[in-house]
Amino acid sequence: MATGIKDKVAIIGMGCSRFGERWGDSAEDLMVEAFTEALADAGVSKTDIGAAWLGTSYEEIGVGKSAIPLATALRLPNIPVTRVENLCASGSEAVRGAAYAVAAGACDIALAMGVEKLKDTGYGGLPVRTRGSFNDLWMPSMSAPGLFAQLASAYAAKHRADPRDLKRAMAHVSVKSHRNGALNEKAHLRRAVTEEQVLAAPLVAEPLGVFDCCGVSDGAACAIVTTPEIAASLGKSMVVTIKAMQIAASDGAEMSHDTWDGTTVANTRIAAARAFREAGVRDPAAEVGAIEVHDCFSITELVTMEDLGFSTEGRAIRDVLDGRYDHDGAVPCQIDGGLKCFGHPIGASGIRMLYELYLQLQGRAGKRQLPGLRLGLTHNLGGAPVSNVASVNIIGRLE
Amino acid sequence: MASDTTPPPVGITGCGAWIPRRRIARKTIAGAHAWFNPALSGGARGRRAQAGWDEDSVTMAVAAVRGALGGADPARVSALWLASTTLPFADRQNATLVAEACGVPGPVRTLDLAGSLRAGTGALLAGLLDGGLPAGATAVVAAADTRRAKPASADELAFGHAAAAVTLGREGVIARLLAWRSESEDLVDHYRAAGSDHDYRWEERWARDEGVVRQAPPVVRVLLESAGVAAAEVARVIVPAASAGDAQRIAKACGLAPDRVVDTLADGCGHAGAAHPLLLLARCLEDAEPGERILVTGFGQGFDALLFEVTDAIRDRRPAATISEALAGGWEDDNYLRFLAFEGNVELETGIRAEADLKTAHSVAYRSHAAVTGLHAGRCTACGTVQFPPERVCVNRDCGAIDRMEPYRLADRPARVVSFTRDALAYHPDPPVEYGMVEFEGGGRLLAEFTEWERVPLAVGAEARLVFRIKDQDRIRGFRRYFWKAVPATRGE
Which InterPro entries does the annotation name (chain A) (predicted)? Predict the structure, then answer.
């Protein structure tokens, strides 16, 4: 019976580029920026890396297909390098590959890189691309905000919530992330906003306004993983290990079966349950000290609080408005600004979430530092509520 | 010349129609052109119908045929004729597409008829005279037109977009053909060259006085004589002219009382081209009484005249009052620029999101045409779960049976809204695009676009019905894709 990879893999080095509209930099430049920081942090040399994984989603407008762009940009000495793609969860998928390689004993030290260069497309938001030759024949012309916005309509109807309360709670989510992001030097959006500003913003996809949507950014993030034993032999004192690493992908039930009511992200619930089991977490709200979730849109973060079990069913609006997920709340969420303000370079986001918790666990988060964090959770979502892949990872100090 | 007075065994058994819900007041059109052609305002009365951006002669024909079939089993349809001068495809049979969208299964004879405004009556005559219709079978004759007009032309005021369809059969005949007569003559009062968007017209007075006013009387006289019906015995006269005045003048020339001429639907619809005679006939059958004689005429390089008699069966098989309701409903748009955009007469900057390549993989489209054109989901014969899109493996986790799917048509089932949004970001010709999940009575769900112009607020739980519409226009390759969209019940029928 598989027991998972709890404490079998240590993160010894992480790097993250500044996110934002990096007009002057290529995807390769961004990868080098993240890698340089991670390598220095790990205190190993490039030749110690035995295998690497690249997570990127929009290869057609970014680095191109395959893992060769990573191998070439970093001049990795002909080691095995693999490219993975799972939409916005591609970064988490890259870490999973590297972590599993280490846990399996296939290599001692592995690298995971996530990158996206979105600002070379001419688009303000995410570029339009094919959904596949069959899906294009029937799926409506949709955008990411529109796909997620539907959560709000179904959620409000199911819980008989006043749409104005829901809108205010969504605004609170964004106001909180802007406040956090303002303290983050690497964040894309660093200006605090007021609830009034958020509520008055033009609608993108009803009921989501401009401030309910995350930044569309360029960026790269990188993790170097090894075994706890090797980490110790390298003299690492504050070792951070992976407690759980789970991904769940849609089997089509949301799209095609009446069992999904449109108010949740079903895979988040499944991946979270598996992750808590793998990590041995029994009471998430009491044991997990900080969370980085996939707040592509404010409504996503709101329902994710219920999907992860930090809010009970139908309570998220109240909990959000009560400040439960604020910097000083019971479960601080998006301490680094989240996708909303740190930014969302698709392939890099899952690793960026880990980067923040890794810094927090080691007491290196500067002005954003939370006291005494022992366990943190990342939630990285690819796709849309109706069809998606959800990644839930838990990392913490090696006790 | 060709004619016959022997009543054929096949008659009209039902009818349906579709008038798009978009209306524009003619004074709105004329007002926009007052600087350029002030004379237009003279005839600028009432409202005309305009197809939504996602409607064309195929989608409107589908709506009319679905209405004509009512709840009847589409499997009984053995032939479908489609008449139009504005078929979206010059070489890809439009009638076949209509048949598949209406759920008519494979063994059906289909044919497009085009080339003249007389195509509508021509198709009706062809269907009625067709000897190949077996007992118990249904033939469908549909006509639809979405003629485009140049801005500031008289056509822009006169035209309206609409479709009509009749079902034909040997049983349950509500109107039988007493006699018919057809003559052809190459008189060019107007024409539209192949590939051209707009008509060219000769002088109106010549077209009327030297054209139909001269052509019609001898044909009608001989028709009535051969049928043994006196002019006074004709209860309703259908003259598909653009104006009531012209229609009455033509009737008078034929010796028919002008007060028997039926309303040309100039207000609320406009002249629907090849569909117009069938549209007016369908309107008559909404309230015709048994024994009434109805004369249907059609002209365009000749003249068709068909004399019908309404039967007793109409008491039990009364067609729905679709046209009366459509005329009473509708949604008036006072935005002439939007009218122009939907007519394709002004090119708007659509932004980078409209640059996405909409190339169709025709091999994929063919493999999936039952799902995409006919909206056939899969129903698992092992557990009963209805699922769209159909896959080989059942989506029900407690089942998972492989290759147990049977086709299950969702298009005609009532649905309700599960979730929705109004999206201002995604490209759409009529933004914001609205879409969401709908669930069908009896099972199955669909992530669907919502359509119909009026912005009635959507609501979770609202009832919806499915309509066949244009999905995408591939401007690079000139291809048009169709799929089904949901219309919330609050947006009316």
Answer: Thiolase, Thiolase-like, Thiolase_C_2, Thiolase_N
How many CA atoms are closer than 13 Å to the CA of A118, on its beta-carbon side?
29
The pLDDT of residue B5 is above 60: no
Q: Is the pLDDT of residue B1 over 60?
A: no
Domain edges within chain B? 2-189+204-343, 412-493
- Taking contacts as CB-CB distances below 8 angstroms, the residues of chain A near B461 are 157
Contact A122 B352 (CB under 8 A): yes
Q: Which of residues 51-110 of A touch B (CB under 8 A)?
A: none
Q: Which fold has domain B412-493?
A: OB fold (Dihydrolipoamide Acetyltransferase, E2P) (2.40.50)
Nearest in space to B185 (alpha carbons), one of B302, B330, B86: B302
Is the previous residue joined to B431 through a cis bond, with omega within 30 degrees of 0? Answer: no
Q: Average of pLDDT values for B128-136?
A: 88
In order of start, what are the domains of chain A with their CATH numbers? 10-122+218-233 (3.40.47.10), 143-213+243-397 (3.40.47.10)
Q: Which of A88, A213, A222, A333 is catalytic?
A: A88
What 3-state DSSP class applies to B322? helix
For B2-189+204-343, CATH number out of 3.90.550.10, 3.40.47.10, 3.30.420.40, 3.90.70.10 equals 3.40.47.10
This model of the complex carries an ipTM of 0.94
A341 in active site: no
Q: Is A261 on the interface with B (CB under 8 A)?
A: yes
Interface test with B, best of A121, A135, A136 (most B CBs within 10 A): A136
CA distance A122 to B354: 13
Q: Which residue among the candidates A172, A178, A294, A344 is catalytic per the annotation?
A: A344
Q: What is the pLDDT of residue A122?
A: 87
Which parts of chain A fold into alpha helices (H)? 27-42, 68-73, 90-103, 144-158, 163-181, 195-200, 228-233, 253-256, 266-279, 284-287, 298-307, 316-321, 338-341, 349-361
Q: Per-residue confidence at B492, pLDDT binned at 50, 70, 90?
A: very low
Q: Which of B362, B425, B427, B483 to mutate to test the interface with A (most CBs of A within 10 A)?
A: B425
| Angstrom distance (rounded) from CA A25 to CA A38 | 19
Averaged pLDDT score across all residues of chain A:
97
* pLDDT at residue B43, rounded to an integer: 80
CB of B269 within 8 A of CB of B279?
yes
Among B175, B161, B147, smallest CA distance to B68 is for: B175
Closest of B323, B236, B225 to residue B288, by C-alpha = B236
What number is the average pLDDT over the span B18-38?
97
| CA separation for the pair A348, A22 (Å, rounded) | 14
Q: What is the pLDDT of residues B218-266, one digit of tens each?
A: 999 999 999 999 999 999 999 989 888 999 999 999 999 999 999 999 9
User: Which residues of chain B make contact with A149, given a CB cutoff of 8 A?
Assistant: 421, 423
Nearest to A140 among B372, B385, B433 (CB): B433
**Looking at beta carbons, which residues of chain B come within 8 Å of A147?**
421
Query: What local confidence, expressed as pLDDT, does residue A88 receive?
Result: 97
Residue B135, pLDDT > 90, answer no
Q: Is the CB of B397 less than 8 angstroms away from the CB of A140?
A: no
Task: Establish whether A172 is a catalytic residue.
Answer: no
DSSP state of B319: P
Between CA B310 and CA B241 the distance in angstroms is 23
